[in-house]
Amino acid sequence: MHMLGYPAHFGQLECLKLIASQKFTDKRIGYLGAMLLLDERQDVHLLMTNCIKNDLNHSTQYVQGLALCTLGCMGSSEMCRDLAGEVEKLLKTSNSYLRKKAALCAVHVIRKVPELMEMFLPATKNLLSEKNHGVLHTSVVLLTEMCERSPDMLAHFRKLVPQLVRILKNLIMSGYSPEHDVSGISDPFLQVRILRLLRILGRSDDDSSEAMNDILAQVATNTETSKNVGNAILYETVLTIMDIKSESGLRVLAINILGRFLLNNDKNIRYVALTSLLKTVQTDHNAVQRHRSTIVDCLKDLDVSIKRRAMELSFALVNGNNVRGMMKELLYFLDSCDPEFKADCASGVFLSAEKYAPSKRWHIDTIMRVLTTAGSYVRDDSVPNLIQLITNSVEMHAYTVQRLYKALLDDISQQPLVQVASWCIGEYGDLLVSGQCEEEEPIQVTEDEVLDVLEGLLASNLSTPVTRGYSLTAIMKLSTRFSGVNRIKKVVSIYGSSIDVELQQRAVEYNALFKKYDHMRPALLERMPIMEKTATNGPTEIVQTNGEMEPSAVEAKHPPPVSQPTSPANDLLDLLSGNDVVPVIQTTLPSKPASAGGDLLELLGDISLGGGPAPTPAPAPAPAVSSTQPAFLLDGLTSQPLFNDIAPAGIPPMTAYNKNGLKIDFTFERANPNPNIAVITIHASNSTEADMTDFVFQAAVPKTFQLQLLSPSSNIVPALNQGSVTQVIRVLNPQKQQLRMRIKLTYTLKGSPVQDLAEVNNFPPQSWQ
Amino acid sequence: MIKAILIFNNHGKPRLSKFYEHYTEDTEQQIIRETFHLVSKRDENVCNFLEGGMLIGGSDYKLIYRHYATLYFVFCVDSSESELGILDLIQVFVETLDKCFENVCELDLIFHVDKVHNILAEMVMGGMVLETNMNEIITQVDAQNKMEKSETFIFQSTRQDR
After folding, report:
1. Which part of the chain is the AP complex mu/sigma subunit domain (chain B) (predicted)?
2. What angle do CA A142, A143, A145 make, to 5 degrees?
């Protein structure tokens, strides 16, 4: 126990002794000490309860006041329960000094023990008819607390609205009353309190709101604003108008008052105005737009709090019409603001640019500007977003890569900028070297210069490991786009012995690409196709990729890892002999409705399956290989039919696998609306005595089909057929070939892991016709 | 609701600290230190409202402060209090202290902490504003002081009798 930093443990029992004494002086010090030194956590405080009880019934009002004060400040819930009755009695007394203290004490009791609220209800009946402002004030606080806590109370007190309105009117209309005057306005504290209570009472209630309309308008127009006091009342009035169901004229009046606040010289008023405008911008957007220029001026204020508020409000006000002007101001702000703002401002700019960009070129320019000025502060996920954006704006590729190249020449310290730039150069290096650019003056760049820049990035101390990864991949991609391959080979082989494991792995694999798999290289390192836009701030879905083969748009957000040409051990590849590769999509989507899955598969439907080297979203070797050597792929898997779109119900279910107690049944359904998609539900059941844990079901289908595995219901197959694990498979079969599937099962039975492969051939013909 | 009232001087020494919520002593000390750091950095002509202060917790709480000569008066409040109203309350508090102590200065706060607490207790109780009328507060405080004085007088006179 410390007081002002000094230990005061000895004081606790002394305080109690003082409180118990008869003298007022002792009591005063004792209670003061109790308030400061004791709290709920000390057991000693319970000893005070009896003292307080006696003092609450004392003859001297000051002693009673002391007791109430202490109880109100630090009463624990037990104390409150015991003494609530006494407090309630005091609430009805005629002594105004005690009454106001009792009211606040009651608030504390209600806070500690909400169940006792009803006890104070009868006492509140007469509270508002008091003349004493102190009592009025505290009773309004009590009513506010009760209304906030319980909706029944709220309904009950609604009938007090006319009375409150009357009191407020008296306050405003009455002339000068010296005792309550603060700078010319009579009892502003009480006015503010009443306004707040009116706000709570009128919140969703039309009748009360109507009753209040007049008085609010009166307060709003009559209060003089030269001093802080008047502004305080106006501020509270504005908040009230905004919250209740007021008529639109009143709302416009409120927003105008806020606009006037913004022009005030006093920083406090401006701060308060900006805060309230932020709250109202959602509902009254147009009205706030009128004050846009003032808000934008506030961005230039010296005060940090005001700048932050103005920035948030500006972002809320950006819309299609004013985006160009606002962005200019905000970018200027980004240049000159403190680092703590830069991250928020950058993300805000990105979001607004994405929503309202008038043209692609403007969008790219804006993003480049942000990257060059605040590059190190942007969020990590903005890099993939940017890359996706750039890929999608096909006609701007040349322009983009040129500008990025120029930016790289200037400055390589800002990592997000460098990452985006190296990715683009890797993709569109040929455009850069060929010097075509419609939008801007084309610059003459040779291949060597480009490679110099990228190698410089690799070697520089300023680059993070991630950036180095980006640049190595970019260099590799240029091997297909540029003619001078030897230099690239040299660079790649040097990094094969790099200390950084990531770089080393990449370099070794790229090396292998040069040596053994040179035939695959061109197709592997092709241009990325246009990526589907997914939700901008939704979470990217968790995807289990099988190395390079996931023709699914969702993962397109991470191009660099995807462009790894080879992959670590791929379970499913083991299923199929040799190096044939089958597009199996094993994705775990969060619980999405069927339509979303349908979108995904429709996207896949766009990807030509049967054949050419066409744009697959990942440079999958599979289709690439197939274009050059068809036989290669289907090694080990003869033309395998895939589940076709199936005839409606009436397709018999089948048993796909039954061995060692594990039985897997397939049931079929027709998929909607795409007729080429079949939906199979597998049911795995276990007839042995022990549960099968870590159960994983994997499937592979031939290249002409596409498979999508949704997440299973669980990983544990209960023993003795007590339950089953279900998993949904969606299969796309546009060519309506016969369905065949290889499945692989892994599970742990009685502690030992089990793996098994099987082929499923016995699909009923309706399933694929 | 007012969470805490702090008065400290320009060097960060607390002259009065009243918390209306339960914190451990270490937390209280840390709150005082942190508030001082935040408030002392502020320029003279910026607005009097501060957000932040991790310890007092949450985004709902603001620090509303006023700087008078060598002392900072800081009220830590949540969103249920009107910011401009609290500014006025600080002003009323300081004026009351001035009336009670005759040209109050920091030394008065150091040597008469209990009196300052008593005055504050008449104004703010349990985190809520009790009385804002300066005259009323002073009347009550004077009456209580008179009671104290009369008791000590009786005590002294009874002692002398023996």
Report:
1. 1-147
2. 65
Gyration radius (Cα) of chain A, Å: 37
Chain A positions in Cβ-Cβ contact with residue B17 (cut-off 8 Å): 4
B26's CB contacts (< 8 A; 6+ apart) are: none
Alpha-carbon distance A245 to nearest alpha carbon in chain B (angstroms): 20
Q: State the Cα–Cα distance between residues B34 and A4, nearest whole angstrom.
A: 15
A654-767: CATH superfamily: Gamma-adaptin ear (GAE) domain (2.60.40.1230)
Name the DSSP class of A706: E
What is the distance between the alpha carbons of residues A16 and A172, in angstroms, rounded to a whole number?
47
A394 close contact with B: CB closer than 8 A: no
Q: Which residue has the higher pLDDT, A1 or B29?
A: B29
- Three-state DSSP at A394 gives helix
| Structural domains counted in chain B | 1
Q: Which residues of B touch A269 (CB under 8 A)?
A: 84
B85: domain range?
1-159
Q: Is B102 on the interface with A (CB under 8 A)?
A: no
In sequence order, the β-bridge partners of residue A707 are: A584, A731
pLDDT tens, A40-72?
Answer: 666 667 778 888 888 888 888 888 888 888 888
Which residues in chain A are contacts of B133 at CB distance < 8 A? 133-134, 179-180, 187
Rg, C-alpha atoms of chain B: 18
DSSP structure string for A660-729: TTEEEEEEEEE-SS-TTEEEEEEEEEE-SSSPEEEEEEEEE--TTSEEEE---S-S-B-STTS-EEEEEE
Regarding pTM above 0.80, the answer is no
Which of B84, B118, B126 has its CB closest to that of A228? B84
CB distance A581 to A621 below 8 Å: yes
Chain A residues touching residue B14 (CB < 8 angstroms): 4-5
Write the ipTM. Answer: 0.70
Query: Which residues of chain A form CATH 1.25.10.10?
Result: 1-158
Residues in chain A: 769
For residue A766, the tally of other CB atoms under 10 A from its CB is 15
The answer to whether the CB of A388 falls within 8 A of the CB of A364 is: no
Residue A66 · residue A15 · CB < 8 Å: no
Which of A39, A104, A267 has the CB atom closest to B47's CB atom?
A267
Q: Cβ contact (<8 Å) for A306 and B117?
A: no
CATH top-level class for A1-158? mainly alpha
Instruction: List the structure tokens of A344.
Output: 């928020």
Lookup result for tokens 């001026």: A297
Give yes or no for a contact between A739 and A639, defined as CB atoms under 8 angstroms apart.
no
Instruction: Give the whole-angstrom CA distance, residue A418 versus residue A242.
Output: 47
pLDDT digits (tens, 9 = 90+) for B39-68: 888 877 777 888 765 655 556 778 889 998
CA dist A313 → A220, A367, B59 (Å): 24, 21, 18
Q: How many CB atoms lie within 10 A of CB B79?
A: 12
Mention every residue, 6+ apart, whose C-beta is less than 8 A from residue A572.
A546, A582, A584, A586, A698, A700, A744
Q: What is the pLDDT of residues A58-107, one digit of tens each?
A: 888 888 888 888 888 877 788 888 888 888 888 888 888 888 888 888 88
Q: With an 8 Å Cβ cutoff, is B12 touching chain A?
A: no
**Contacts with A137 from chain B: Cβ below 8 Å:** 129-132
Among residues 132-171 of chain A, which lie with CB inside 8 Å of chain B?
A: 133-134, 137-138, 141
Contact check, Cβ <8 Å, A182/B152: no
**A623 interface with B at CB cutoff 8 Å:** no
Cite the beta strand spans of B1-127 per DSSP E: 2-9, 14-19, 49-51, 62-68, 71-77, 124-125
Distance of CA A229 to the CA centre of its chain: 39
For residue B12, what is the nearest residue in chain A, using CA coordinates? A4
Q: Which residues contact A386 (CB under 8 A, 6 or more apart)?
A: A367, A371, A416, A420
Give the number of A-B residue pairs with CB atoms closer than 8 Å: 143
